[in-house]
Structures are given as structure tokens and as C-alpha cells.
Task: inverse folding
């Protein structure tokens, strides 16, 4: 059954090719696209004849199997029945459209949408995975939206398309929630697996209601029905296909599949389905009676019939399920045929208003016969297939002697009376009237369309006459839902029984109602609710917008401090508040580990307060440098040599960078009024502070497993080939993290570059006085070369002793900073005579390539490998691939420092000294003098 | 672990948050710096008490300080520098463009908030849309 994949692909391919074909072939593109449903129809027939429907054969591949998302299809007899309906009606509609759209320039787009829809619809009925089913489901919603809005210049068509989409897509989302709930409860998303193990309980109940919401919206059940009459803005072939025979039945399909799963396990299933379905059936018929537009009349008729099908499939009684299968086929045949008839009338007479149409019975004979046959099937008259289905259904309900079945019978008969009445109204309105047809000539195009429209009607007649042999189609289809019907029979004539009596009552009653339509009209006007569905819908949507807008205006007032305060207080305060209840000191807690620690902490806290409260920018900058040195001291005490080194260097560089920028800004912080108020500000800060204490203490006392570090300590030398465990972690065990982190550095540096790339002149800044200090010059001359060599040593030694790429790069950066302080940008360029972006990109590339080398060596990405080389004089050199990785880190860090110095410092430089335009004139006196 | 370190980190976080809630970009940068330091102290305390530097062969592994938080903190320090540099560039740019380093209210958000006050009794979306259209037309002219 994997050939079904090829059919889906064929639909997709033809849909894609359609606009191109349409350019040269016009409306004949519809015949070209008809290949897709035709191929499906042939495939279906072959599969049916060869007994190919195999309920157990699931074909497909895993997509994201961890999430239960698998592309699995399954074709059982029920699915095969559906592919037959979809492709059979499809072929008729496509062929019909070739005539309907003659000369229409939009036919290419229409062909694409309709073919894509046919593929998606096929997908719904063969999908075994529920998530895949959902994807196809929403694809039909999208294509339906596009088809309704085919006339995209007409505002009411666009509005109708949007309403239809919002209602069906919202239901689809509810359905998805139901699917996920079931999937989580049963750990499977497979439809066939669910049938064997139906879920039950509260979760299943909620899921069932959510799934029903999806089905009810898609199948236009009350109170979601209103989008369907609006969808009649679609071209008539689309209405005939989507909004009568296929898409709206997707909800019925869903109910049919889930009824065997839920009808016992979820007690609310049956009452819900019966109430909604029966009410919709009667309501739709009632409203259809007062419509004057034939197409809208039929749309409400479809709402009513869909309600009937929902009842038949949803009730979960095996004999009724068999009736439902027959009714499903009958409805697809007669309803698509009737819609095509409307298209014929519309194209011929130019109107669908049954008050003006007249004389069509004589001018459109074939169409009239088609309409009569189809309407008779809809009324449930013998010997048509609609009669077989309805009899079977009534029989089924009569045999079910539960308390609810008599109520259902009454409602079904009431619905049938209305069906007979509006069917008669349709025939009389469309083809009655004694005056001759004002359009004298019937075009060839309209004749062709009439013939195609008759196909479904004739099929309905043949289906009724051949009902007994056709049991080989109906019974297996029903049996794949309810295995107990396997031996049942389907008959055209079951003899004189109660069901026949009820049918007769419905027919006679319906004709009586039709005869008294005028009197009924007055009653309808009295009962009519003065509010239309569209008004209610639009009102609800507009109310939703208003609520959304007001909520946004309230919670999102534009103030960054307010946002940050709320976020900080919530994310830290709430969890910490919960933990505060039983916070305890960790077992190994001490007040302080040494007096030196106390001193360092006091330094940190003191300088931090200074940085926070100072009203002067430079004081704040220097104070935060003090905080950094204090923290570095803490690292030394803690035994974190690498960290302390890094911290000292970074802090120095940070202060330099701060000063480079702050010199442009006024020295004082001007007071800014702030509306949240100092108290609230302080309160949020206090909440955060207390939260940090609580979280730290909780974290410290919550260790349940030994530290992962023990592994690193054990394996650093054998696996990583290094003695400095911190460095081995950075360059080997967690090298992927490090790679990500240097990527962040590169991005930050590029961000700095691009923010300050364009320098509009005219902003005078206080000049940094560089180049005129003899002391600094001497110091730099002595220190910079030594520091650069030392940085290289740190880089190479880092794997076995404190050091490494980060520290080495920062030492080199510090040397460059000193050189910059001495000689400005020109001096910097002498050491790094190229764009620092080369360092950034090159470093990142080297680090990444090291990882790839590990991959090529047969290991994993970034897995280290060892190398021993005999070098003359120096002896044997041992190296691991961690070294080139660290070289990459080194380069990125140096690149970042150079970028910061060059960009943040550049405003004090003459504009001609840039990295892109080098010139030889770099005397310090020029750099330092004001221009 | 040292309770003192936890409190030191808390002081840094509290002050950092306080600065972060202000409107001066310079103060925000300093606040980010303080929070960065606080985070590094937290990372170190998560490794338990102190010890000797974790270099194999330079002592008894029993007394080693936990190397993992050190590796995490090391990259965090460098990243904080990168972020600080970026924020400084933003402050600088802001100064170039507006001669100020104040973080202003988000204009879009303010517009929605002020619109609410104007249209609070207009329930009809279309009317609101029209009002919005006139608003933006007015903006273009100014």
C-alpha cells in the first residue's frame, strides 16, 4: 500500500505544474489536473477488486519518532471507501470545471488550489498517525480558505473565506489538543492502535470533547455552522467538491473513526453527538426552507445532512454505522450533483434566485433529470441510494430499544420532513414556473456541464438498484469500524416494515410542509432571531480584538524598567518564595572560610555599593573595576587560578573600554524622574537579593549525586591528554560549549563594529591624551614584547599548567591595550596590521575545523586526538588537537580586544587612521593633538 | 560552602538589579557587570568549598577545587566582557545620535497605551482601525 505515497506526490506535482499549464492551455488545465483524482480512482478500484485493503498494513517512515510524529499511512476498507468518494467526485468536478472556467484567467490558481486540496483530503483519510492527520486537516482548511477567496477582489468573498478559516482552524487546534492529550495518555498517536486500547477517564473525556470540537467546526454543526453558507462565495465547482462532498465530511470521518474508540469509554460522547447532530439536522432544514438563493438553500441542506451523518456515525450502534456508510456515499453523489446543477443554472441563466428562474425544465432537460434524481435521493425516495441509507438507519434505530432511540427517531423523522420540503422547494424553484426560459439558446459548454452533473445522479440511481451486490463495498467499510456488522446485508427493498412507514410519513409530511410554505413563511418570520450568525461572529471577533488591545495597553506600557522589574521579581521571587518555606543551611556550611575571604568579600561589597550609588560616571567605572579585582581575589582564595588570572585581565580591559566610552558622556548622572518610584525599585532589588541567598543555600544543600567533576578529574589525563583539568574541560570535554561561547564573542565584536561603523561627525568628544607620556612610552617599550611572548607561552602551556587560550589571549590583549594607551590607534596597527575581523573569523574557523578533524579521524565532533612529533633540538613534542582549538580561542579573544580598542577608541583618533585606509603618518603628536 | 559568599553574591545581584531598573544606559551597563560578578561567585560556590588548583600532579586530588564550575565561570567572565563591550558600543551610539544615554519608552507600546485611553469606549474594531489610520497619517505629517 506504499503506492498511496505516489498518489499524494502526484497531487502535489500536478498542483505545482498547474499554473504553467494554464498559461498555454487555459481551462483545459483542469483536465490535466484531473489525472490526479483519476489515478486515485483507478488505484482505488484495483485495490478494492484485488482485496488490497489491509487494515494492518501501516506504511511510512518516522519523522520525529521521539515526539510520536511519524509519517504513517494505513488503508483499510473504510479509508478505501473514502478515497473512492474523493477521487470519484473529484474526477467529475475537475472535468466539469474545465467547462465552467472556460475563458477565466484565474483558472491556473484555482487548479492548483483544488488539486492541492484533493491531495490533502486524501491524506486525511489514509493517515494513521494522528499528528499527520492534523497536518492534512489544516491543509484542507488552508486550501478551502484560498478556494472560497478565489474572487479575491470581492470583499465579501474574502471576509467569508476568513470566517471559514478562523472557525475551522480554531476547531482544528482544539482537535490537536485532544490528539496530544490522547497521545500523552496512551503513548501512541496511531489511530489503529487506539482502536485496540481505547483510553478512558477524565483525560479521555476532555480529549473526546476537544476532538468533537474539531469535527463540529469542520462539519458545520450548530453553533459553528455559519461559515458554510458564507463559503458559497467560492466558485460552484469548489462548493460541489469541498463544501458538500468532501471537506465538510472530514468532521464526519473523524467522528466515524473515534466513535468506536469513545462511545463506551467516554459516557458524554453519545449524548453530545446526538444532541448536536439532531439539532443541526432540524435547524439546517428549517433555515433551508426560507432561502431564495438556490446555492444557500443547498448549503443549509448540507448543514442539515451533515448533522444526520454525525448522528449516524457518532451513535456507535453497529447496524446504524452500516447505514451511515451507505448514506455517506449517497450524500456525496446527490449533493455534489445538485451543486453542479446549480453551476449549470447559474451559468445559463445568470442568476440563482429561485423567484426569478423559470422554464428551465424544458430548456435544460438533462440537467433537470439530474436534479430530480439527485433530489429524490436526498428525500430518500425509492429506488435511489438515499432511500437505502435512510431505511437502514431508521431500521437500526427501531431495533435499538434504548431509552434515547425513540427521541432520536422523532428528531430524524422531523429532519426528514424538512429535507423533503426543501428538496421539493429546490426543484420547484429551480425548474418550475410556467413562463418560458428567457435565455433562448443553450450553449455547448452548459450542455457539457449538465451531462457531467448527471453522472452523480445516475450513480445514485444505479447504487440504489444494485444495493444488494454493492454490499461488498459497504459492509467491509463499516466492518473496519464495527467488526460485528461483517455478515450484514444491504437491500433496496426490505419489505413493508416500520421503517418504511416512517419514510412514508416523512415524505407525505414533507410535501404538506412544502405546500404550506407561504403560511410557514409567516411563522418563520415570527420565530426568526433578529441576529444573524455573521453578526454574532463578527461581534465576537471585534470584542476579542478590543480585549487584546486593552490587555496589551495595560501590561505593556512601554517602560523597560517596569518590564525588567516584573520579570526579575517574578522569575526569581516566585520560586525563591516557595523555597523559603523550608530553606536550610547546607551540611558543610560555614560562616566564612578564612579571614582573607572576609576581607575580599568586604572589598567586593564596598566597591559594589560605591559603583551603584556614585553620581559620577568615572567613579562608578573605577569602582566596578574594584569589584572585579575583589572577585579575582576570591577566586585565588578559592583555588581557581585560571579564573583569577582571567578575571584580573578582563577587569583591566573592561575599565579601559568603559573609560573609552564614558569620556564622551557628561561626568555626572543627571537625575531622571522615574515613575515606579525609588521604593518599588529598591523593593524589587531586595527581592532579587533575598532570592539569590535562598536559591544558593537550597542549591548547596540539594546535591543528591556526586559531582560530575570526579569523572573529569579521572579522565583528564588519559582522555584529554592534559593536566590542567579546567583547560581540558574547556578544550575537550565541553569543547562544544566553548565553541558556542567564542561564537558569542565573535557576534558581540561584530555587533560593536557595525554599531560604530558609521561615524557621523560633529560630536565633539573629550580627547584621550595619548602619546605624550615618556614614562608610558618607556614602560610599553619594555613590557609589550615580553607580555606578547608570555601570552604565547600561556597559550601553549595551558593544557598542563594554569593558562590556556582565554588567559593567553587576554594577556596579549592587555599588552595591546598598553600599546594603544602609549601610541593610540597607529601603534595598535603596527602590531595587528590587518582587520581584526580576520582574527575573529579565523579563530572561530580554526576551532570549528579542529572539531571537524576529530570527526574525520573517526571520532566525534571535537573529539581530541594526540600527536607526538620529534623536533630537532627541542626533542619530542607532545600535542593534542586541543592546542589548535585553544589557538582559535586565543585569536577570537585578541580579535575582540582589538575591535573594542579600535572601535570604542576611534572617536579620539584622526579619521584618516583607519584599518581600511592605512597611511604612514602616525606620529603620536598628531594623534594626541586636538583638531 | 561559605554563607558569606552567598550573601556577597546577593549584594551584587541586589545592587545590579537596582541599577538595571534605571534609565541610564551607563548605569545599566554597570548593573550588568555587577550581576555578572555575582553569577561567577554563585558558580564557584556551587562547587562547594575551596581547594587547591586542580592541576594533576600538583597535589592530592582529594583537596582539589571543583574544576567544572571554574570552567563555566571562566567562559562566563569572557562573555560578560563581550556583552559589556556591546552595551558600551550601544551607549556610545545612543550618545552620538541623541546626545543622551537614556533608555526611552518603547514608542509602539506607548502608542497602544495612549490609544486605549482615547478609544476606551470604542468597541467597534473598524472604528478603532480608522482611528489608528488617522493616527499614523498624522505621524507622517509631523
Result:
Amino acid at each position: 500500500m506504499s503506492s498511496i505515497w505516489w498518489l499524494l506526490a502526484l497531487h502535489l506535482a500536478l498542483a505545482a505544474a498547474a499554473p504553467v499549464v494554464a498559461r498555454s492551455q487555459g481551462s483545459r488545465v483542469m483536465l490535466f489536473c484531473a489525472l490526479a483524482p483519476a489515478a486515485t480512482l483507478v488505484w482505488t478500484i484495483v485495490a478494492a477488486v484485488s482485496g488490497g485493503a489491509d487494515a494492518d498494513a501501516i506504511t511510512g517512515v518516522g519523522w520525529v519518532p521521539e515526539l510520536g510524529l511519524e509519517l504513517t499511512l494505513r488503508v483499510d476498507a473504510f479509508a478505501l471507501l473514502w478515497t473512492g468518494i474523493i477521487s470519484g467526485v473529484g474526477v467529475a468536478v475537475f472535468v466539469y470545471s474545465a467547462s465552467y472556467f472556460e475563458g477565466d484567467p484565474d483558472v491556473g490558481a484555482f487548479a492548483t488550489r483544488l488539486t492541492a486540496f484533493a491531495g490533502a483530503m486524501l491524506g486525511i483519510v489514509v493517515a494513521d498517525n494522528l499528528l499527520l492527520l492534523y497536518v492534512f486537516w489544516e491543509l484542507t482548511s488552508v486550501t478551502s480558505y484560498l478556494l472560497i477567496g478565489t474572487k479575491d477582489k470581492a470583499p465579501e468573498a474574502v471576509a467569508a473565506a476568513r470566517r471559514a478559516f478562523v472557525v475551522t482552524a480554531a476547531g482544528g487546534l482544539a482537535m490537536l489538543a485532544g490528539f496530544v492529550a490522547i497521545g500523552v495518555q496512551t503513548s501512541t498517536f496511531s489511530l489503529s492502535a487506539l482502536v485496540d486500547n481505547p483510553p478512558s477517564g477524565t483525560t479521555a473525556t476532555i480529549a473526546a470533547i476537544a476532538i468533537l470540537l474539531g469535527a463540529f467546526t469542520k462539519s458545520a454543526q450548530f453553533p459553528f455552522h455559519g461559515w458554510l453558507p458564507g463559503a458559497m462565495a467560492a466558485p460552484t465547482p469548489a462548493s460541489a467538491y469541498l463544501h458538500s462532498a468532501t471537506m465538510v465530511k472530514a468532521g464526519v470521518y473523524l467522528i466515524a473513526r473515534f466513535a468506536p474508540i469513545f462511545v463506551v469509554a467516554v459516557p458524554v460522547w453519545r449524548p453530545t453527538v446526538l444532541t448536536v447532530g439532531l439539532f443541526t439536522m432540524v435547524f439546517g432544514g428549517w433555515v433551508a426552507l426560507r432561502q431564495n438563493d438556490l446555492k444557500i438553500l443547498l448549503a443549509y441542506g448540507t448543514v442539515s445532512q451533515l448533522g444526520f451523518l454525525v448522528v449516524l456515525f457518532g451513535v456507535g450502534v453497529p447496524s446504524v454505522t452500516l447505514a451511515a456508510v451507505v448514506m455517506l456515499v449517497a450524500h456525496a453523489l446527490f449533493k455534489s450533483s445538485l451543486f453542479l446543477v446549480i453551476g449549470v443554472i447559474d451559468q445559463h441563466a445568470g442568476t440563482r434566485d429561485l423567484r426569478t428562474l423559470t422554464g428551465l425544465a424544458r430548456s435544460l432537460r438533462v440537467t433537470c433529470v439530474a436534479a430530480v434524481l439527485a433530489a429524490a435521493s436526498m428525500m430518500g425516495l425509492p429506488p435511489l441510494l438515499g432511500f437505502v441509507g435512510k431505511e437502514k438507519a431508521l431500521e437500526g434505530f427501531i431495533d435499538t430499544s434504548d431509552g434515547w432511540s425513540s427521541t432520536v427517531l422523532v428528531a430524524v423523522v422531523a429532519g426528514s420532513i424538512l429535507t423533503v420540503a426543501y428538496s421539493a422547494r429546490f426543484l420547484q424553484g429551480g425548474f418550475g414556473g410556467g413562463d418560458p426560459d428567457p435565455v433562448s439558446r443553450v450553449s455547448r459548454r452548459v450542455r457539457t456541464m449538465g451531462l457531467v452533473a448527471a453522472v452523480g445522479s445516475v450513480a445514485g440511481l444505479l447504487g440504489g438498484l444494485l444495493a444488494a451486490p454493492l454490499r461488498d463495498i459497504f459492509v467491509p467499510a463499516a466492518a473496519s469500524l464495527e467488526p460485528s456488522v461483517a455478515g450484514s446485508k444491504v437491500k433496496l427493498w426490505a419489505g413493508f416494515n416500520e421503517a418504511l412507514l416512517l419514510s412514508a410519513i416523512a415524505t407525505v409530511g414533507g410535501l404538506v410542509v412544502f405546500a404550506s410554505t407561504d403560511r410557514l413563511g409567516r411563522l418563520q418570520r415570527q420565530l426568526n432571531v433578529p441576529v444573524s450568525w455573521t453578526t454574532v461572529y463578527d461581534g465576537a471577533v471585534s470584542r476579542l480584538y478590543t480585549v487584546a488591545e486593552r490587555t496589551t495597553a495595560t501590561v505593556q506600557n512601554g517602560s523597560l524598567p517596569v518590564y525588567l522589574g516584573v520579570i526579575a521579581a517574578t522569575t526569581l521571587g516566585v520560586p525563591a518564595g516557595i523555597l523559603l518555606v523550608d530553606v536550610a543551611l547546607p551540611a558543610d556550611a560555614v560562616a566564612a572560610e578564612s579571614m582573607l575571604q572576609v576581607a575580599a568579600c568586604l572589598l567586593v561589597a564596598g566597591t559594589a555599593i560605591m559603583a551603584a550609588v556614585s553620581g559620577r560616571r568615572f567613579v562608578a567605572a573605577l569602582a566596578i573595576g574594584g569589584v572585579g579585582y575583589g572577585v579575582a581575589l576570591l577566586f585565588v582564595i578559592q583555588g581557581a587560578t585560571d579564573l583569577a588570572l582571567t578575571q584580573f585581565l578582563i577587569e583591566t580591559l573592561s575599565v579601559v573600554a568603559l573609560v573609552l566610552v564614558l569620556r564622551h558622556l557628561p561626568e555626572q548622572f543627571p537625575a531622571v524622574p522615574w515613575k515606579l518610584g525609588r521604593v518599588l525599585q529598591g523593593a524589587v532589588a531586595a527581592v532579587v537579593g533575598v532570592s539569590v541567598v535562598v536559591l544558593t543555600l537550597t542549591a548547596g544543600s540539594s546535591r543528591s549525586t556526586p559531582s560530575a567533576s570526579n569523572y573529569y578529574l579521572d579522565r583528564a589525563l588519559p582522555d584529554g591528554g592534559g593536566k590542567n583539568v579546567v583547560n581540558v574541560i574547556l578544550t575537550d570535554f565541553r569543547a562544544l560549549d566553548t565553541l558556542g561561547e567564542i561564537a558569542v564573542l565573535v557576534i558581540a565584536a561584530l555587533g560593536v563594529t557595525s554599531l560604530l561603523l558609521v561615524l557621523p561627525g560633529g560630536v565633539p568628544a573629550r580627547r584621550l591624551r595619548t602619546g605624550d607620556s615618556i614614562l608610558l612610552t618607556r614602560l610599553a617599550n619594555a613590557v609589550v614584547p615580553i607580555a606578547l611572548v608570555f601570552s604565547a607561552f600561556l597559550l601553549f602551556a595551558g593544557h598542563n599548567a594554569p593558562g590556556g587560550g582565554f588567559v593567553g589571549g587576554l594577556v596579549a590583549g592587555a599588552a595591546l591595550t598598553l600599546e594603544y594607551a602609549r601610541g593610540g590607534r597607529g601603534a595598535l596597527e603596527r602590531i595587528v596590521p590587518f582587520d581584526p575581523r580576520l582574527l575573529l573569523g579565523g579563530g572561530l574557523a580554526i576551532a570549528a575545523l579542529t572539531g571537524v578533524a576529530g570527526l574525520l579521524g573517526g571520532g566525534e565532533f571535537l573529539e581530541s586526538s594526540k600527536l607526538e612529533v620529534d623536533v630537532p633540538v627541542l626533542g619530542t613534542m607532545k600535542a593534542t588537537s586541543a592546542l589548535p582549538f585553544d589557538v582559535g580561542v586565543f585569536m577570537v579573544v585578541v580579535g575582540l580586544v582589538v575591535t573594542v580598542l579600535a572601535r570604542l577608541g576611534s572617536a579620539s583618533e584622526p579619521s584618516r587612521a583607519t584599518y581600511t585606509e592605512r597611511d604612514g603618518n602616525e606620529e603620536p603628536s598628531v594623534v594626541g593633538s586636538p583638531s | 560552602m561559605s554563607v558569606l559568599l552567598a550573601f556577597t553574591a546577593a549584594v551584587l545581584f541586589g545592587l545590579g538589579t537596582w541599577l538595571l531598573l534605571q534609565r541610564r544606559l551607563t548605569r545599566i551597563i554597570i548593573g550588568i557587570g555587577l550581576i555578572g560578578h555575582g553569577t561567577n561567585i554563585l558558580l564557584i560556590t556551587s562547587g562547594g568549598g575551596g581547594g587547591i588548583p586542580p592541576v594533576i600532579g600538583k597535589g592530592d586530588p582529594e583537596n582539589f577545587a571543583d574544576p567544572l564550575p571554574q570552567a563555566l565561570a571562566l567562559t562566563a567572565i569572557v562573555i560578560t566582557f563581550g556583552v559589556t563591550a556591546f552595551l558600551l558600543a550601544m551607549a556610545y551610539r545612543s550618545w552620538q545620535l541623541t546626545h543622551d544615554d537614556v533608555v526611552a519608552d518603547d514608542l509602539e507600546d506607548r502608542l497602544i497605551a495612549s490609544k486605549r485611553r482615547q478609544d476606551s469606549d470604542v468597541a467597534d474594531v473598524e472604528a478603532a482601525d480608522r482611528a489608528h489610520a488617522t493616527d499614523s497619517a498624522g505621524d507622517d505629517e509631523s
Q: What stands out?
A: Residues 120-142 of chain B have pLDDT under 50 and may be disordered. Chain B has two domains: 2-104, 106-142. The domain at 2-104 of chain B is CATH 1.10.287.3510 (Helix Hairpins).
